[in-house]
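Course assignment 3, question 2. Fill in each field.
Student: A.L.
Task: Predict the tertiary structure for the chain below.
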Amino acid sequence: MDPLNESLFDAQALESPAALASSLAPPAAPGHFDELRGLATPASVPRLGVPSQPAPLHDASSPPPAMPAEAPAGDERAPLAPHWADFFEQLGAEGFSDLPRRAVSLERQIRDNGVTYNVYADADGPQRPWSLDLFPLIVPPESWAAIEAGTLQRVRLLDRILADVYGPQQLLAEGLLPSALVHGNPGYLRAMHGVRPAGDTWLRIAALDLARGPDGHWWVVSQRTQAPSGLGYLLENRLAIARQFPQAFEALHVQRLAATYNAMMEGLQHMCPAGQPPHIVLLTPGPYNETYFEHAYIARYLGITLVEGNDLTVRDQRLYLKTLQGLRPVHGLIKRLDDQFLDPLELRADSTLGVPGLLQAVRAGNVLVANTPGSAFLESPALLGFLPALARRLLDEKLLLPALPTWWCGERAAMESVLPQLAGCTIKSTYAGEDGHAGFDTLLGSRLGRRELDEWAGRIVREGEEYTVQNYLPISQMPTWTEDLGAGHIAPRAVLLRVFAVCVGPQSWRVLPGGLARLAAADAQIASMQRGGSSADVWVQTHGEVDRTTLLQAHATPASLARHRAPVTSRAAENMFWLGRYTERAENAVRLARLTLDLLGGEDPSSPALLTWLHDMARRNALVPRDVPSLPRSRRVFERALIAELGDVDEGGSVGYSLRCIRQAAAAVRERLSPDHWNQIVRAEADFMRRSAELAGERGESGYASAAALRMLESTSSALSAMTGAQTDRMTRDDAWRLLSIGRHIERLAFLSSSLAAGFELGSVHDMSGFEAMVALFDSTITFHARYQQRRDVATLVDLVVLDGDNPRSLAWVTQTLRGRIARLAGSAPGKLTALSHELPDPATWTLEHLCDPGPHADHGALVRLLETCETAAYHVSDAIGIRYFTLTSESLRSVGA
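Answer field:
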């Protein structure tokens, strides 16, 4: 298909947008359902995996419905389905010519919002921007009604299976479920047998992956019950795409999502154990999980606290959240963590993601977990083949939403039936992702050669229970907007639809009117984000009134507002504290490195005392290796070592190491940072590491390397200034921010105190160049020259960088600010300091007469002792804050709340 060009855009004057779309968009691949036109494209060859094959032993499907009409072969101008025609008619006055602009706007919005998907869960690798197509998948009311009814029925069925398996186990006794698929599945948790969750409801959130076959009907491909992902991404998709097509969104009567999320939260709150209002948290594996963005996003949207395992603790069979104010009871937990990692005491002992004792709290009925642990075995594809009989047994109903015909090869008859048909099927692992079992990506038999098919058949014969074979379904293809061929064009892509059912009360569920559409990569048949696929918004149309419920409360009460003030967890507080410290540490390292390179590259010779001070400061702050020759003896060797160490991410103290630590600390509290702040942090590290690599690859004169290094440091300094501005002026002044600020000022106090003390001990402040270098390191050069003009004596230096309460780089200002922030953190009354604040010296007692000895040979002992006291106090306060607020090993182990 040729890309759109000006002549095609001009054709809008002669054709309607719908007719133009029909002429520009190629049909779906042969044998696939064409979502754009609402009919199947004729198959050029016999389709694989359809009626000619015998039915499986346990067939989840009813007889295939009648096939819809097929488009005439080669006709690319077949009329569009009515809902797609309506969509294109609502593009507005500029029509197709405006689509490239909207695509660019969408890409910028995703980037600016920081929407990411970490494909490889690599802590050191860059996160991949979320991939979202410009066009939504549109589902008309009649089609959605069938999906909704079938989804609700399946969730009821799966919930009753869980109740039986963890209760009387009649299904196992009657042979309706093979024991190997239950007791032999690591996802079955024996520790949960006999548990009866609140409302006798096991499933709170469930997802079904659906595909539309050539027959035009939706089929179940898989089911997700453990911790289904997508509830956050689909919200972001909706906001992004509705903004690009506001006119079409209104005209097509697309159902909104907020009412279902609201009903889900109300259902969880009503079924939580005692606690008014109940405290609900969302448990995430952490920032390096593939879908961490949506964990933070959905927690923020629902107004609940995002926590990791080490934020929680169990005491007396009750779950608590560790906060700065102490232990706060937790009544409900939405988990985004696989069951095996939930409790290292009873499940995987090597798990650092879960909470010791959590299962005991669940069994005691003191915490509601969504979903109740133990549902993982339902995700096995082998179970799909047994659900029709289970539906008749438990619900006395026939399944409304059929699954793809499925064979579990642990049954000999099923294995023998399917082996001759492997070339037309897909091969899946029965226990995918479970330790001790065969693990592999889904295979398409049609992509395997004869020899490979024979090899897989041999594996299936030897270990049949490890393999499940499923009918191959040529899944439907929807129109997508792609610009890889120039100005842009419409191309069909295979699509899977994930729909969600959420619990809104005891034995009551509601289907979210929308979902997450996943698109296969170009020319691929498997839709997977891990394999380079993308996503699309899902618009569900309604014939009735659009539900315009919002989570915004029209009449907020003090109690409701208090519920939305999320507590500051100890883990979040610790990461904010270190975010502040590493930001300040990076600024100090950049300033010291720039000062050193400027002085070494200057024409004026520096005094031996200044060179010794620079060498001492560079070693103290890990800017050079400890074995580098002294600066006074070998200036060029020292300079080259300093430049080489700037980008070393393995040594603490280097600029590159501090920037990486900033990014890692920020990732752990990303839900607290604005998108702009997060993007600044990511860009600063990426830009610095790129420039550092280029610098390392250059082989030129030292002077050229020094100039390039200075440009790199200047750029990094600007980026750090932007970060500091975001932290200072754009963050709410809660306890988390106070800890960030405390971290910054602890680092500043220790660095400046040690720098000034070294200057007096080594004598560098007593000559002109050393004096100017010290003032520059305190970032006070302009103020000093404006205030003192030509004076260069110790009294002026001490007055400005030690005693001046208006200079944010002076020790008095930093110390006084620290004392006040620590007092506010502890909840003291205004003006009253806590014991921890008194660990810092009181600037009100400092005087110029006491700190500056008269005479040319004064040793300034009182000043040096004060500087040493400040440095020691800074590190002591840091340790005390860690013990009191982060590890909770002091008096803060009290319980707060009811």
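Instructor remarks: The CA atoms of residues 333 and 369 lie 5 Å apart. The longest helix spans residues 570-601.
Grade: pending
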